[in-house]
Amino acid sequence: METTSFRTSCLASKVALITGGGSGICKAITRKFMQYGCDTAILSRDEQKLQSAANELQHETGRRCLVAAADVRDYDAVSRAVDKVLTEYGQLDILVNGAAGNFLCPLEKLTYKGFKAVMEIDAHGTFIVSHIVFKKVFKYRGNGIILNISMTPHYTGALLQTHAGAAKAAVDAMTKHMAVEWGPYGVRVNGIAPGPIGDTVGLDRLNPFQSNTMKKPTGALEVQNKVNNLTTTKFTTHTTNHNPTNETDNSASPAEMMRMLIPLQRLGRTDDVAHSALFLCLPEASFITGATLVVDGGQWLTCCNFTVLEPRSMSKWINSAKEAQKSGVKMLSSVPPTLSKL
């Protein structure tokens, strides 16, 4: 058992349903809940993948993990899955809405089919599962906890993620509306918005510096070329405790490029998100509702769209950076890479 500030039995006698719990961040949340005494059910379309994950989690933790296969876009299928959970456990205390779909694509090349799929999985799915669980369980028991897994691209209008940003903006809105409408029933609703998480496949697929992710769909390559031209040949390791050399590194990996733009100077871990989810489900968080906790090392505060702007569009930034260097002010890692070593 890991060493943390949480009581080892803080979720004892609780049952949680986690959509998307068979992989990635949501699998880590499922594991964390089970490590702290919670029995779980994981829901997604791929029953075989779910069963493999459930077997692994049960072996690791000694807790129960039920497979509830369903497509979150199918109201009736989700309703049956929730019934299965209630039949198996006789209760349901926590819902984590983590099922999601995403990919990188320029807006001009984004098809309606692709946009619709992400909206339906993320936004419609969050509504459907929450609606069913509230009506079947939380409304009548007088309490319950819902966690909606979000993200941050819509905070800044991030490139290549109009579909995901729109879907997660809807999820964030639902977090607030659900918190207000269902609060009188004793239901708390909060969100978690993870940033770049190093131990997930999503870091490679959704990293704008990762050329392999940019080859599909058609049209994304043009944007990647701009990113490459303005970053990889000018990327530096800034003078920090983690990077004391302040030397140019033209061979920085995509993950390293991403890390250097995060104020805390590291990629996130799935445990960072899982611990945040655990806290929001505890009595210590009993007066928190309608909030979305950003777990990204400060990335969204500093990671903007400079990488695809022409240098002439950044004259004010460049002048400020030059003045800062003349006066001896240390350049922070949050400064766009194109401004380093001016």
From TrEMBL:
GO biological process: fatty acid catabolic process
Enzyme class: oxidoreductase
Transmembrane segments: none
UniProt entry tagged with the keyword NADP: yes
EC number: 1.3.1.124
NADP is among the record's keywords: yes
Catalytic activity entry: a (2E,4Z)-dienoyl-CoA + NADPH + H(+) = a 4,5-saturated-(3E)-enoyl-CoA + NADP(+); a (2E,4E)-dienoyl-CoA + NADPH + H(+) = a 4,5-saturated-(3E)-enoyl-CoA + NADP(+)
Molecular-function GO terms, alphabetical: 2,4-dienoyl-CoA reductase (NADPH) activity
Any single Gene Ontology cellular-component annotation: peroxisome
A Pfam family: adh_short
InterPro entries (UniProt xref): DECR2-like (IPR045017), NAD(P)-bd_dom_sf (IPR036291), SDR_fam (IPR002347)
UniProt keyword terms in alphabetical order: NADP, Oxidoreductase
PANTHER family the record matches: PEROXISOMAL 2,4-DIENOYL-COA REDUCTASE (PTHR43296), PEROXISOMAL 2,4-DIENOYL-COA REDUCTASE [(3E)-ENOYL-COA-PRODUCING] (PTHR43296:SF2)
Similarity section: Belongs to the short-chain dehydrogenases/reductases (SDR) family.
Name of the molecule in the record: 2,4-dienoyl-CoA reductase [(3E)-enoyl-CoA-producing]
Originating organism: Cardiosporidium cionae
